[in-house]
Amino acid sequence: LTHPRLVAIVPFRPGSRRRLGPPLREDYFEHVCVGGRLPRNYWKVGKEAALLKVDGKVRGKIGVSRQRTIPRLASLDLDTNELIIVDCDFYPELEYVAGYWRRLEDPYEGDVLSVSYEGQDKQGKLGESYELETLSPALFLRPGQSFPHRNRIFHLFGPPDLLDQICQKFLGVNRTMLEELDAQS
């Protein structure tokens, strides 16, 4: 990637693991990450948000369940002060399809949001992209039926202090938290 200090921000609904499940679905690590694990210095899960380094050196993917979703994802490039926020419609009463690559006991307990990013693969090739993904509910529509799924993308550039205020208000994190994760190597 040409963005060595890019951090993805994943806000989630706080609460007990027993009642809401884990803040992030990490099931993808086994199949996506080299060695089956995302290195600890590449992610941090806080009380209201998770942060992920997406610098193109490590592959990874996480998801957010219906019980934990706050319908918003973001990324901030700490070098260019470019903030991208993706906001979407969310229907907590509807089911979402699981996007895993294996058979599941309940295929309709899938992710509402996910972040995936390319990085070094088993052959040593570095990645070139990342994705802030929103998913629509799983619906069995009849011919002619439709269901809207809207995404809103906000692409912002600005001074660090202004972007920090936006991150605090809409994402539950501050720039210092992102810089601390970025500094871990």
- How much is the average pLDDT? 88
The side-by-side strand order for the widest beta sheet comes to 2-3-1-5-6-9
**Content-based structural category:** alpha+beta
**What gyration radius follows from the Cα positions, in whole Å?**
17 Å
Helix content: 10-25%
| SSE topology string | EHHEEEEEEEEHH
Largest beta-sheet characterization: 6 strands, antiparallel
Total helices: the number is: 4
Tell how many strands the DSSP assignment holds: 9
Distance between the amino and carboxyl termini? 17 Å
Q: How much of the residues is beta strand, in percent?
A: 25-35%
Molecular shape: globular
Q: Runs with pLDDT <50, length 5+?
A: none
Plain-language structure description:
With 185 residues, the protein is an alpha+beta fold. The protein is 16% helix and 28% strand. It contains 4 helices and 9 strands. A 6-stranded antiparallel beta sheet has the order 2-3-1-5-6-9, with helices on one face. It has a 3-stranded antiparallel beta sheet with strand order 4-7-8, with no helix packed on it. A hairpin with a 3-residue loop joins strand 2 (43-45) and strand 3 (49-53).
Properties at a glance:
single chain, alpha+beta, six-stranded antiparallel β-sheet, three-stranded antiparallel β-sheet
